[in-house]
């Protein structure tokens, strides 16, 4: 099978953890231990989130006041290299020496007229108390939004239109490489009035980009790995229930939150509809079981209705 695995940024750096290199490597090791188990007989493409990492780099850049902070597209490129490097190293230590890897800086086109620019929803950086978040928003001109019982900075998250490096990704897969690409939803770019491509201040949703990537690669399975073991209704309440399997029509009726599970469900539904294949939302530590069909929330057009675990 050709499998696209989308690793969530918050799964790679868990909620409330200090954003240290050691913590990120430790969480990536959990993911790569799972991915190594599904390598045999499969073609693998790994995408990943970068919200916490971009937020950290943004804070670090803002602390150095002698130059203007680097824009989000440049920070996105930096995180693609940083996270890809750690994934390559950790996975390479688990697989045969001869397995080739490639991490690609991946530019993704968005539309300048996308309504997302007027309604920031994509969380980046660490979590804050409400008071801390409001203070930072006033000082830095940020937009902020609730994230569970905390608050985070939010930025525009336009839809991905085109993955510029899709051809080299295919070439690498043909040579049996494990490809790490479209990190953080890709580097956000758009064409200006002069016809030249340039970066923009935004973060593309990783899951929507991974869905587009999986569709264009004709993947057999899209795995959206996050920090929960399934998509839930009434999450965090006594009435919460995990969804086992669902048709996209049923999932879209449930109204998941735009800043968290919503994009994952949307991405999974779009992939299932476009390809007729299956997308699964589940835990980073359950990737092997997800591929085997025994874990996560499976979304497919093959079966009507919805079932709960």
Automatic annotation (TrEMBL):
Name the chain's protein.
Answer: Carbamate kinase
Q: Which GO terms describe its cellular component?
A: cytosol
Its GO biological process annotations read: L-arginine deiminase pathway
Q: Does the keyword Transferase apply?
A: yes
Has UniProt tagged this entry with the keyword Zinc?
no
InterPro entries cross-referenced by the UniProt entry = AceGlu_kinase-like_sf (IPR036393), Asp/Glu/Uridylate_kinase (IPR001048), Carb_kinase (IPR003964)
Regions crossing the membrane: none
Q: Whose protein is this, by species?
A: Pseudomonas extremorientalis
Q: Which keywords, in A-to-Z order, does the entry hold? A: Kinase, Transferase
Under the GO molecular function aspect, what terms does this record hold?
A: carbamate kinase activity
Q: Which residues form the Aspartate/glutamate/uridylate kinase domain?
A: 1-282
Please give the Pfam families that the UniProt record associates with this protein: AA_kinase
Lineage, opening ranks = Bacteria, Pseudomonadati, Pseudomonadota, Gammaproteobacteria, Pseudomonadales
State the family it belongs to.
Belongs to the carbamate kinase family.
